[in-house]
Design a protein that fits this description.
The structure is a single chain. The chain has helices at 12-23, 37-49, 64-78, 101-129, 151-171, 197-203, 214-224, and strands at residues 3-6, 27-32, 54-58, 81-86, 133-138, 176-183, 235-239. The protein has 246 residues and is an alpha/beta fold. It has one domain: Rossmann fold (3-Layer(aba) Sandwich). The protein contains 7 helices and 7 strands, in the order βαβαβαβαβαβααβ. Helix 2 links the parallel strand 2 and strand 3. The N and C termini lie far apart (47 Å). Strands 3-2-1-4-5-6-7 form a 7-stranded parallel beta sheet, sandwiched between helices. The longest helix has 29 residues, at 101-129. Keywords: NADP, Oxidoreductase. GO terms for molecular function: oxidoreductase activity.
Length: 246
């Protein structure tokens, strides 16, 4: 069966995506940092309870060797790599004048460099396999509308959009489709707890008048990972419940 990789998989959106892809028939490699090892093992067991194969791979997406090893372990354990979901991300709710350079560098390392490394490693493997694939990055509504109260995060997500669109052009001749999905639920990013003011403020502008769930994002990723998305690439898919911006 085809294999999928999901980074930042231990909680929130990453966890929901992993379970949905398992329901869709994928064997799933789940990844997160060492501090999330127990949650990864629990997720692996849940995927296996659905009758799918899984492997849990601890690693930091901002480290090239870890990302390369993630792809290598996945292919060795699960076989053909069909889908990469570069979901891992971190957020700091600081304005430009309050942010330290070390904090800026850390956010960019995970949210931009980490996505780049996932795109490269997955792209290299898919090109070698010779029959295409699907690569999906995690963006945010902050990468579509400026968010000055989380400046490093907002800039990183704007970068993800550009990275995805440019890489999609390069990978298209190899039959690889690429997107980034834009959501509005900050509580699904590591470091922002449920009920945070960011989440409440964004949800209050939703035309649907209901909170977004990780499963809403997973449903979109399910479509993008399927054969039905074959003629869509280089796009930012906005899943925001119809947020109204004034």
């Amino acid at each position: 069966m085809p294999a999928a990789i999901v980074t930042g998989a231990s909680q929130g959106i990453g966890r929901a995506i992993s379970l949905r892809l398992a329901d869709d028939g994928f064997d799933v490699a789940v990844n997160d940092i060492a501090a999330r090892h127990s949650e990864l093992q629990s997720l692996k067991a849940e995927i296996e309870s659905k009758g799918r194969s899984s492997v849990a791979v601890v690693g930091d997406v901002s480290i090239e060797e870890d990302v390369n090893q993630l792809v290598e372990v996945t292919v060795e354990a699960l076989g053909h790599l069909a889908v990469m979901v570069a979901n891992a991300g971190i957020i700091l709710t600081k304005r430009v004048m309050d942010l330290t350079i070390d904090e800026w560098d850390r956010v960019q390392a995970v949210n931009v460099k980490g996505v780049l490394l996932c795109y490269r490693a997955a792209g290299r493997q898919m090109i070698a396999q010779g029959n295409g694939g699907k690569i999906i990055g995690a963006c945010s509504i902050s990468g579509y509308r400026p968010q000055p109260t989380a400046i490093a995060y907002s800039v990183s997500k704007w970068a993800v959009r550009g990275l995805t669109q440019a890489t999609a052009i390069e990978f298209a001749p190899h039959g690889i489709n690429m997107w980034d999905q834009i959501d509005d639920n900050f509580s699904n990013v590591h470091g922002v707890p449920k009920g945070h003011a960011f989440e409440q403020a964004v949800q209050s502008r939703s035309a649907m008048k209901k909170p977004q769930t990780p499963e809403d994002i997973a449903g979109c990723v399910s479509f993008l990972a399927s054969k039905d998305s074959g003629m869509i690439t280089g796009q930012s898919i906005i899943i925001d419940g119809g947020i109204q911006f004034s």
